[in-house]
Amino acid sequence: MKLKVGDDAPLFTAKSVNKGVVSLEDYRDRRVLLVFGRYFGCPVCKLDFDGLLEMTGDEALDFEVIYVTQSSPESAREYIEELDVDFPVIPAERINGRYPLYDDYGVGRIGLTSMPGLLRRAGEARKAGKVHGPYEGIETQSPADFVIDEGGRIVWAHMGFLEPDRVLLFLRKM
């Protein structure tokens, strides 16, 4: 089931590697950018995470960020420890080869139509000096991002790699 604009955001509680236990319910009355990455060994995901960090530096916008990854807690902690990460990073729980939190939000696999964009982004990541690290998670996992309004409804749903400029433009119009 893919979630769409207007749907209630599924509630969850999960342990982050840097901000303790995180419950989406605790974010009521605030706008939330919920980002589903792949894993921190992925060069494109590293590039996306850099973009996310830049986005959070715009203090004129009032929104919270929650980042979900398929990396292990150890890998996630190691990756973010040198960075100035002021939002929770949650390693999703894997059960029987699946990630229920990704499933709850309808975040599926990368389709064939995404391959040209993936190859372009891989080239950008290579130019930025991002190298592949350990493989974790599901290699064909699609990333996704959602904006959840103060009432807990999804007002932005995007499957694919993070596009910070588009998300910021949307947040500015809210």
CATH topology: Glutaredoxin
The CATH homologous superfamily is called: Glutaredoxin
Rounded Rg: 15 Å
Order of helices and strands: EEEHEHEHHEEH
**Name of the level-1 CATH class:** Alpha Beta
Order of strands side by side in the largest beta sheet? 5-4-3-6-7
Distance between the termini: 26 Å
Tell me the total number of β-strands. 7
> Would you tell me the overall average pLDDT?
92
Question: Explain this structure to me?
Answer:
The chain is α/β, with parallel strands linked by helices. The protein has one domain: Glutaredoxin. It is built from 5 helices and 7 strands. The protein has a 5-stranded mixed β-sheet. Helix 1 crosses helix 4. The radius of gyration is 15 Å and the shape is globular.
Produce the secondary structure layout.
Blueprint lengths: L12 E3 L5 E3 L8 E5 L6 H14 L7 E6 L3 H8 L8 E3 L8 H5 L10 H13 L16 E5 L5 E6 L4 H10 L1
Parallel strand pairs: 3-4, 4-5
Antiparallel strand pairs: 1-2, 3-6, 6-7
Helix pairs in contact: 1-4
Compact description:
The protein is of the alpha/beta class.
